[in-house]
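ok so for the tutorial part 2 we go from a plain amino acid sequence to predicted structure tokens. step 1 is just haveing the sequence, like this:
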Amino acid sequence: MRAATYEIPAAPGDKEGGECGVFYFGPGQGGTVEDNVNRWVDQFEQPGGKPSRQSAQIHTQTINGLRVTTVDASGIYTGAGGPMAQQVIRKPGYRLLGAIVEAPQGPVFFKFTGPAKTVAANQGAFQAMLKSLSRS
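step 2 — the prediction. this is what the tokens look like for a chain of 136 residues:
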């Protein structure tokens, strides 16, 4: 279930802004970390059909006692329509910053997508948000 949505203003030169969705499904819900990472990465296409997994950056770290897996992927975004969309919307030059926080009450998912310049301009704020997480 989507717990919150944040609209991110477009960076200079971008025609549209980005979106950061926060999702929480409950204890034991929402799928595994690996399943979600793979789904997010697979929402991108690369030139020449190269697998997005080869260019995506995936890291796991501990932040304030919480295990956090982060994803940084870019290319042609095909996940913009959502699972109920009638057609796939392809958005070239897009980027995704994602984080899956393994919280005591169940995983919390942060998915920030938008034009690459907009995401890059807000990457520091996204990382600061993750560093502010706590177990309480």
